[in-house]
Amino acid sequence: MKIKEIIVVEGKNDTNVLQSCIDCDTIETHGTHLSVETLRLIEQAAKTRGVIIFTDPDHPGETIRTAINQKIPGCKNAYIEKHKAKTTKKVGVEHASKKDLLDALSHVFTYQEQPVESISWEEYLSLGLHGGEAAAHQREKVAQALYLGRPNAKTLFKRLNMMQLTLHDVEELLRK
Fold this sequence. Notes:
Its EC number is 3.1.26.8. The chain has eight helices and five strands. By secondary structure, it is α/β, with parallel strands linked by helices. Strands 2-1-3-4-5 form a five-stranded mixed sheet, with helices on both faces. β1, α1 and β2 (23-28) form a beta-alpha-beta unit.
């Protein structure tokens, strides 16, 4: 399988694991400090081949993802759940199985730069996705179905709107 887009990862180990199971090119960020040179490279790749951001499911990975999405609109995003990408001591894309990597890459999506609100905060609250342990479980259920990682309440609300999902769409996901 050859992936047309260039995959943005955090380091060499991520590149090695991805290239061992799929035919792809990568750009490595080398940590949370994104250099001007790296951002220019990602921007050029986005214009010519497209970009998939596939960072680790942890705080530094989310920081990198957010920075790239803000500076370079139109990037695709792939997420892997933390429990699928960790060892007893580390979390990272390089620790995921081939099956889980391919699954995550088959569910990429692009954030809309100026999304129109498709679900209001009041509707979101009515779904029980904010406040309490039950809400965390419900958020996890929605996030797993959409391959969104494990977002907190505000982040899930934002991502649902970015994906233009409606109240009805989320209700359907919760019923499954």
